[in-house]
Design goal:
mainly alpha
Length: 141
């Protein structure tokens, strides 16, 4: 097996590309998810969490069911959306790395098989080699 056998096989090239792209998504997703989750925790108030789950019967008569978001709540909402996006990128990166490793492994297996077939193949134009199956009794010439 030579180097041109490796970089001309499409499975190996695609597999390594998926591994690199997936690793970049994985790393970026982990870092950004942690950043935005810290932002969300920093913007949460303990009093807000207690009032989020009140039933409709417990609401005051004049209170609005859906109050408009304040600037701080809006920023926390945007941070949550971004965190969800980067979490999806993180999960997609993991899947791409796994898929890339599988495709690369299949590529290496096919290159090794081709190389072993090439090593045991007989040249067809050599008249000095006997024809027939290997290990079969030879006919006298």
């Amino acid at each position: 097996m030579k180097l041109p056998d490796l970089y001309t096989d499409w499975k190996i090239v695609v597999g390594l590309g998926l591994v690199m792209l997936g690793a970049a998504n994985w790393i970026l997703g982990v870092e950004r998810t942690q950043i935005y989750s810290r932002m969300i925790v920093a913007h949460q108030h303990p009093a807000d969490a207690a009032t989020d789950y009140r039933s409709f019967d417990e609401l005051d008569e004049g209170a609005a069911v859906l109050e408009p978001l304040t600037a701080e709540q809006r920023q926390a909402s945007y941070a949550t959306a971004r965190m969800d996006f980067y979490h999806a990128a993180f999960l997609a990166g993991r899947a791409m790395v796994l898929l890339g490793l599988i495709v690369t492994l299949l590529g290496f297996i096919s290159v090794i098989q081709q190389d072993s077939r090439r090593a045991f193949r007989r040249p067809e134009d050599d008249p000095h080699l006997p024809r027939g199956l290997p290990g079969a009794p030879r006919t006298p010439q």
